[in-house]
Amino acid sequence: MAKGKFALGALFGIAAGFVAGVLTAPKSGKETRDELKTKASEKKDEVIEKASDKLNDVRHKAGDLANDVVEKTEKAVGQAGDKVIEASHRAADKVTGKTQDLQSKAEEASRSAQTTIEKKK
């Protein structure tokens, strides 16, 4: 809390010093106002320039971040696609293996049936 009171007191002191300086200045009111307008305009231009620079920095950082996200997303999609292809190959291999097993069993059953039929004749 003491820091806040100190900062507030410092701001009031600066403002009071500024007002006292303006009131006791050797220039006329019109000259002082013109000078204040000029300085205010210069400060405004400085602030606008700094804000514009910061905005450009933020834009560049945002663009870089977006590019990073796109690259990582493309990589993740590629890896996921590879895994899907790998899984489909494994599934196809299993289906092929089961089909061959069933075909062998069907052929064995057919031979067994033929043998049984021939014994019955």
Can you put this structure into words, describing what you see?
It contains 2 helices and no strands. It is an all-alpha fold and 121 residues long. The model has no long low-confidence stretch (mean pLDDT 87).
Distance between the termini: 112 Å
- Content-based structural category: mainly alpha
> Mean pLDDT score, rounded?
87
| SSE pattern, N- to C-terminal | HH
Biggest sheet details: none
- Based on CA atoms alone, the radius of gyration comes out at 43 Å
The stretches of 5 or more residues where confidence is low (pLDDT under 50) are none
The helix fraction, in percent, is over 70%
Strand content: under 5%
Individual helix count: 2
The total of beta strands comes to 0
- The geometry reads as rod-shaped
Brief descriptors of the model:
single chain; 121 residues; mainly alpha; 2 helices; rod-shaped
Topology at a glance:
Elements (H helix, E strand, L loop, with lengths): L1 H22 L5 H92 L1
Give a short overview.
By secondary structure, the protein is mostly helical. 94% of the residues lie in helices and 0% in strands.
